[in-house]
């Protein structure tokens, strides 16, 4: 890692040196993720900070610094890269797929993110001087080292941020998730090994060795297996790059064999020690179990991914060309998994009916942007690989070859990881990938675009300041609405959980004013209206809840809770057919929820339709929760419709003593008594009524 101090010289030279330094610091801040390490109270929930907007803003600022400083040096200089064409293709398919999707707003966000990555690649690919390479690499490695140290401290129980999430023994750094944390560190770990091999200065080699050890420990403590596989693949690519580099490269490896053997021995010792119950007892990391679970075809890890991929395949089948739309996998998953959920249930395998990620970026791209989008993404990856290997082959020295091999290996890390997780949807990991791709493009190509115009010296010094100010204002204009929306949503969540429903409604309304395409906020707004309607005798709040639920549905939110709420609203309006229709979807998505089954059985009974199915639904609900009074009550009403009055009466009477098991259960007593009396009259049963139910609000269900 080289010295980053600003050299002495004329004022103009110092100015441009400061601009170069600013570019490196922007890269460093980008890799760290700015919002991931500071201001935990900024939004009330540190995880909700809109990290994507910070990344886009940093890319734009960095790009402006690079471009606007060029006129003062003698003109704009951009390096040609074959990555531009596939980038434009991916951007085009995102726009086309999004325009046809249920929620185009999410597509525009995805397109903006791809533009940011494209700018990041051009930024890295157009370094004005090869001497800047070690400074950029140093900034990235510093970012990785800081994250790794924080993760290790966190594993030891030292954590300065008030994280709401907990991952047990898995550390997650400042990124909030052990998977994201490991995906960010893994490519930097491979690059660190490459630079360690390439470094000749002993002091810097010692520092790099320490950095590699720290990153390795953090990767182990994160326990993210896809990152382990990716790291192994990346190191293999680095080894191949050096093995094919001739005698000079082999001599470089030979000079570093002590270091490499020491690092390998340390790695083995760490793994054997921290996973040993003899040494650490119950605190030992279950590394053997996690590795074994990767190959257990009946285990949760494999089976859950098979569920996700099967659902994605069904989405592809329904929209094969352009897919369901960017970021639409999560909204389409509930209905897709409902088609095969019973088959898995028969095998005793149950899984959440809601998922936002397919745990395979390639599969999710196929589902969201179709085979066309997947093909373009694979083309882009193939070009990255071709450019990367070209950078390795044209390296002038063995040291440069090792560095290029480390960058290519870092890209391979995330390409392999993407087969089991979703690194390209994680801002820090994706930023590192595209930075690496740009740095490879800079090494692989010697073609520059240099217009011959030049501004006067005074204008050349002023232009970067003006351009940066304009860019900052533009970024703020774009980012502030989303920041305001996230902050309002966080406040709405807090008010909703505390029972301040009207204040929650106001907060969600403010959030939607800035981000109207957020289906989740529309649902939360409807839920706040639902709760507030208890105090509104006019019924207008119920209508407002219905409007918000319908809007969430229109934007692609296919959630069983949304369908269940819609069904109950339709029941209140006397539209039992519509209630049954929505209830069928809720029960199909999540049949293990007894409320969905019992509600649907009730609506069937009230309409006198599908009574055999209604009885089956009620039976299943009672079997799930035998002491739930409302399930017994519903079963009794179904039996009454089937004219099995004796059984119906017995079921209704069984519900009476169970009423205290539900919140405000005593309030149901008058209605239940009427049903008991009516069915008793039909059955000709004059037996005495059961004893009064104690007034209890014990919330059991």
Give an account of the 3D structure.
The chain has about 700 residues and is mostly helical. The chain contains 29 helices and two strands. Helices cover about 70% and strands about 0% of the residues. The longest helix has about 40 residues, at about 455-500. The chain starts with 10 loop residues before the first helix and ends in an 18-residue tail after the last helix. The model is unreliable at about 1-10, about 30-55 and about 695-700 (pLDDT under 50).
Low-confidence regions? 1-11, 31-53, 693-700
Measure the end-to-end span.
61 Å
Q: What order do the strands of the largest sheet run in, or round the barrel if closed?
A: 1-2
User: Structural class, please?
Assistant: mainly alpha
- How many helices? 29
Mean pLDDT: 81
Classify the oligomer: single chain
Shape: elongated
Q: How large is the share of residues in beta strands?
A: under 5%
Largest sheet features: 2 strands, antiparallel
Number of strands: 2
Give the % helix: over 70%
């Amino acid at each position: 890692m080289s010295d980053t101090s600003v050299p002495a010289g004329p004022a103009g030279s110092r100015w441009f040196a400061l601009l170069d330094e600013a570019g490196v610091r922007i890269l460093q801040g980008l890799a760290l993720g700015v919002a991931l390490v500071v201001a935990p109270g900024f939004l009330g929930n540190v995880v909700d900070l809109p990290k994507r907007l910070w990344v886009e803003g940093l890319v734009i600022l960095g790009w402006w610094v690079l471009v606007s400083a060029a006129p003062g040096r003698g003109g704009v200089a951009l390096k040609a890269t074959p990555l531009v064409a596939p980038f434009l293709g991916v951007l085009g398919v995102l726009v086309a797929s999004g325009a046809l999707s249920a929620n185009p707003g999410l597509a525009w966000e995805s397109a903006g993110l791809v533009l940011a990555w494209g700018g990041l690649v051009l930024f890295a690919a157009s370094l004005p001087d090869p001497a800047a390479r070690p400074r950029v690499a140093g900034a990235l490695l510093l970012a990785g080292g800081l994250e790794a140290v924080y993760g290790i401290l966190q594993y030891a129980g030292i954590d300065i941020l008030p994280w709401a999430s907990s991952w047990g023994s898995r550390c997650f750094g400042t990124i909030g998730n052990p998977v994201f944390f490991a995906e960010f560190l893994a490519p930097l770990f491979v690059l660190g090994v490459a630079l360690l091999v390439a470094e000749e200065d002993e002091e810097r080699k010692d520092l790099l060795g320490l950095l590699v050890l720290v990153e390795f420990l953090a990767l182990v403590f994160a326990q993210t297996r896809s990152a382990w596989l990716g790291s192994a693949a990346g190191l293999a690519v680095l080894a191949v790059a050096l093995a094919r580099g001739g005698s000079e490269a082999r001599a470089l490896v030979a000079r570093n064999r002590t270091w490499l053997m020491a690092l390998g021995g340390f790695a083995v010792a760490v793994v054997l020690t921290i996973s040993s119950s003899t040494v650490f007892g119950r605190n030992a990391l279950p590394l053997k179990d996690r590795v074994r679970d990767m190959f257990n075809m009946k285990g949760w890890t494999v089976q859950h991914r098979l569920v996700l991929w099967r659902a994605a395949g069904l989405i592809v089948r329904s929209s094969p060309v352009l897919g369901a739309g960017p970021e639409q996998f999560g909204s389409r998953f509930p209905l897709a998994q409902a088609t095969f959920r019973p088959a898995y249930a028969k095998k005793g395998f149950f899984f959440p009916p809601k998922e936002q990620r397919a745990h395979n970026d390639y599969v999710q791209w196929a589902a969201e942007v179709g085979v066309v989008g997947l093909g373009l993404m694979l083309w882009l990856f193939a070009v990255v690989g071709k450019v990367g290997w070209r950078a390795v082959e044209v390296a002038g020295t063995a040291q440069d070859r090792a560095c290029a091999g480390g960058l290519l290996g870092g890209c391979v890390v995330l390409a392999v990881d993407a087969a089991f997780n979703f690194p390209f949807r994680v801002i820090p990991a994706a930023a590192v990938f595209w930075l690496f791709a740009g740095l490879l493009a800079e090494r692989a190509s010697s073609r520059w675009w240099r217009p011959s115009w030049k501004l006067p010296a005074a204008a050349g010094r002023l232009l970067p300041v003006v351009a940066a100010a304009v860019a900052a204002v533009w970024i703020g204009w774009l980012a502030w609405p989303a920041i305001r929306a996230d902050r309002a949503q966080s406040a709405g969540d807090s008010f909703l959980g505390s029972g301040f429903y009207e204040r929650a409604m106001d907060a969600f309304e403010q959030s939607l004013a800035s981000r109207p395409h957020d289906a989740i906020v529309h649902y939360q707004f409807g839920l706040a209206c639902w709760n507030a309607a208890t105090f509104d005798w006019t019924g207008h709040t119920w209508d407002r809840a219905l409007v918000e639920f319908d809007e969430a549905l229109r934007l692609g939110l296919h959630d069983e809770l949304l369908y269940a709420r819609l069904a109950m609203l339709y029941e209140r309006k006397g539209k039992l057919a519509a209630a049954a229709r929505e209830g069928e979807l809720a029960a199909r998505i999540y049949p293990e929820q007894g409320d969905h089954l019992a509600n649907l059985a009730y609506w069937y009974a009230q309409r006198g339709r599908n009574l055999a199915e209604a009885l089956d639904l009620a039976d299943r609900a009672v079997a799930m929760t035998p002491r739930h009074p409302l399930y017994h009550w519903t079963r009794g009403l179904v039996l009454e419709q089937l004219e099995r009055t004796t059984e119906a009466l017995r079921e209704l009477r069984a519900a009476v003593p169970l009423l205290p098991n539900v919140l405000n259960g005593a309030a149901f007593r008058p209605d239940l008594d009427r049903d008991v009396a009516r069915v008793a009259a039909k059955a000709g049963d004059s037996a005495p009524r059961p004893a009064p139910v104690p007034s209890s609000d014990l919330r059991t269900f």
